[in-house]
Amino acid sequence: MNILQQLNDIFTPERVLTDEDSLQNYGKDWTQVYTPDPLAIVFPTSTEEVQALVKMANEEGVALVPSGGRTGLCGGAVAMNKEIVVSFDRMNKILDFNSIDRSVVCQPGVITQQLQNFAEENNLFYPVDFGSSGSSQLGGNISTNAGGIKVVRYGLTRNWVLGLKVVTGAGEVLDLNHGLVKNATGYDFRHLFIGAEGTLGFITEATMRLTNIPKNLTVFVLGVTDIPALMQVFETFQNTIELSAFEFFSEDTLSLMVNDKGYARPFDTEAPYYALIEFEVDHESKEESALQAFEACAEEGWVVDGVMSQSLQQAKDLWRLREDISETISAYTPYKNDLSVNISKVPEYLDKVEQAVNQNYSEFKVLWYGHIGDGNLHLNILKPDSMEVSEFFEQCSKVNPDIFEVTKKMNGSVSAEHGIGIIKKNYLKYSRSKEEVELMASVKKIFDPKGIINPGKIF
Predict the structure, then answer these.
(1) Of the residues 288, 406, 445, 454, which has the maximum number of CB atoms within 10 A of its CB?
(2) What distance in Å separates the CA atoms of residue 430 and residue 389, rounded to the nearest whole number?
(3) Which residues form the FAD-binding PCMH-type domain (predicted)?
């Protein structure tokens, strides 16, 4: 029996797609570097169907690629070698909710915003948030340990996963941690699957933790003189009030938002960099403390101007200056690098990276923004209109070793939150030792002995 016939038997024909439009759509993610070429797209609706597929794939020696919202930026969901793409679009239900445990059991195709809305309807809060929350899926978030804009206060996706049900590459079903808060019984395999980029098996259920809804979130946008001053502002505010976000973007980035999108500047004064600070105002003293921190920063000459939101709508408008950057610059086919170092090293690191960039990208427009409150910087080079995409990416990639060598020397990461996928697997050595990579490959072989699950990613 051929593979397509077996797929039709497992999923029924309407949940097996082989038309060219579907293959092209589901065979890629947000990266524009690789040409997708999958064999078929399948849509499971249960753990049992996923297990049957994995067993068939092992017998036939065919590779499987997990597909969520396909918002990844490193090619982790790309299928270009006749793999079967496993889309979780139809496993998109919230299965259970426990108000005492503050836990919710979700299928992997649940959209991030769907979980956020469900939490809010139950007077709770799911804090992991980012620009693609309206399309990214929970299974993909877990597989990349997604971070986003509130890491300063709430941490990464890993912090909110209480339990997982998975199908390994060997076809075994594992129920990991059972939603427990405390469980000191040996190795916690749940954490191996978080951030594994779908290389060990498929997540088919996730038990997620919720928390209290923050009260009266307020946003401050400040114009800052330079990166060292930005870090002084961060320290001042962090020592004064509890922050839920501390983001930054450059004047070049803001100008693009103003000119291309027609967004209003936060204030008339231009500054080299801008800090966006979010905090909870649950009593009047919090607002007073924030204003005192602003005045202290202004007196030191670190801040040239600032505005604090006076309404929920104004807070949303100020957030758009940061959250809509990625969508805005996508029209310019940006070459992205997602980098991180210890927060205290950010000024030195950014200076050294800029030196490497300027030596090689003098004719290109370079934009900086990111989650500076957790040491995560996004470096974006915009493609000139006159240059072909392939030539542009080739030129940009030539400087990667210089950037990553700086990263290695400062004990940073070549991928803070986007993963490794295909695009960065040749650069893994800059953040992981040879011994670590070998151990990771050994772990994959235990869970996926025949190497059928998302092959060619990470390693």
Answers:
(1) 454
(2) 26
(3) 34-213
